[in-house]
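Q: Given only this backbone (349 positions), what sequence would you predict?
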């Protein structure tokens, strides 16, 4: 496996000392960049993901432009489900859409095990191409069982997750069978990305914040725990992230990732009070702040860094993904400011 001895990102994931605060941005690949729009071409994002040269290029673009400390694979959380033939499309501007949503026991047959070399060879080829080119670690990823389940059950992006919650609460045996299959899908996909050369992984439970602590703990946490436990032998840092998760942050941390992603609603100091002083955090500039005047952005970046209080276990990121119409010049200034920030506290004389 390729190692990156000077990687600030990997050092921060382990809470070890390093020269500068590492930065990458969720949804940095394939969003606001003009060079992305130039190469993307028509068709669905799933078609673009099926083309390894194109996907590798899109992954590299933000690393080249911004000098991020890590790359995130250009792919999508619905790729494994689509690859096993569940029937998922991704509609531009909307997100994943499922023609025949998951509704009953017979739908379990549509979730056969993933064979990465046969079902997602293009993803593995993209990872291999990238590992040859990159001088910073590549982050692979998967959707967490709950967030993927929500797309398969709702059939389209949802605000209320009513069908998902109805199944979760009303049909516990079917929920367990579905979630267990989605655990396997995530584990097999993540292991294949790591074996192909990804140096870290992130589990996106983007919509877990829709759950009460009790429901999260009972119906979701056990499955996310299984995902992280199944990766333990591989010795790569793992990141666990969701949006609106303040109230369940300490429960999510029990799933066992190396790093906890924090959205912008919880200041990093408060997150460490909830998770413990040694916790390793990723985040958490509000992506909407990027639309405010430069001085406001600068102040908000400073506040995130001050909240971290020189802790070596911090990876700077947005509190959620880059919004599509973000001006890349703003992110250039953000990264520059983070990299210039003195990570080590001044020596006491
Ligand atoms: O972070 C990156 O830059 C890498 C690529 C990436 C994409 N999706 C590309 C993408 C990653 C890590 C994802 C993960 C993903 N996909 C998540 C978890 C992250 C999060 O945002 O919380 C979720 C919930 C999805 C499902 C999904 N796919 C959504 C909600 C959308 C957005 C629809 C839209 O257009 O606003 C997609 C489509 C998608 N995935 C796009 C990209 C660049 C945009 C569509 C396109 O370019 O055709």
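A: Predicted residues:
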């Amino acid at each position: 496996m390729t190692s990156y001895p000077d990687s600030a990102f990997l050092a921060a994931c382990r809470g070890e000392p390093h020269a500068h605060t590492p930065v990458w941005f969720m949804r940095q690949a394939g969003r606001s960049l003009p060079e992305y729009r130039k190469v993307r071409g028509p068709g669905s994002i799933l078609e673009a993901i099926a083309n390894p040269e194109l996907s590798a290029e899109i992954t590299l673009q933000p690393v080249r432009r911004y000098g991020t400390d890590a790359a995130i694979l250009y792919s999508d959380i619905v790729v494994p489900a689509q690859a096993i033939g569940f029937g998922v499309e991704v509609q531009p501007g909307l997100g994943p859409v499922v023609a025949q949503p998951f509704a009953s026991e017979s739908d379990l047959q549509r979730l056969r095990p993933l064979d990465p070399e046969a079902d997602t060879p293009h993803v593995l080829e993209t990872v291999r191409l990238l590992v040859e080119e990159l001088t910073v670690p590549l982050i692979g990823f998967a959707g967490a069982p709950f967030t993927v389940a929500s797309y398969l059950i709702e059939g389209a992006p949802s605000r209320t997750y009513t069908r998902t919650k109805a199944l979760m609460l009303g049909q516990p045996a079917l929920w367990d069978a579905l979630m267990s299959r989605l655990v396997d899908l995530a584990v097999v996909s993540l292991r294949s990305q790591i074996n192909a050369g990804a140096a870290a992984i992130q589990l996106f439970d983007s919509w877990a914040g829709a759950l009460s602590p009790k429901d999260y703990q009972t119906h979701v946490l056990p499955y996310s725990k299984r995902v992280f436990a199944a990766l333990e032998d591989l010795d790569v840092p793992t990141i666990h992230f969701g949006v609106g998760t303040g109230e369940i942050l300490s429960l999510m941390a029990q799933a066992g990732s190396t790093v906890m992603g924090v959205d912008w609603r919880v200041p990093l100091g408060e997150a460490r009070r909830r998770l413990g002083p040694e916790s390793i955090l990723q985040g958490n500039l509000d992506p909407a702040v990027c639309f405010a005047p430069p001085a406001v952005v600068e102040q908000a970046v400073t506040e995130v860094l001050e909240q971290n209080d020189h802790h070596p276990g911090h990876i700077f990121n947005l509190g959620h993904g880059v919004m599509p119409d973000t001006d890349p010049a703003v992110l250039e200034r953000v990264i520059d400011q983070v990299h210039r920030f003195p990570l080590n506290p001044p020596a006491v004389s």
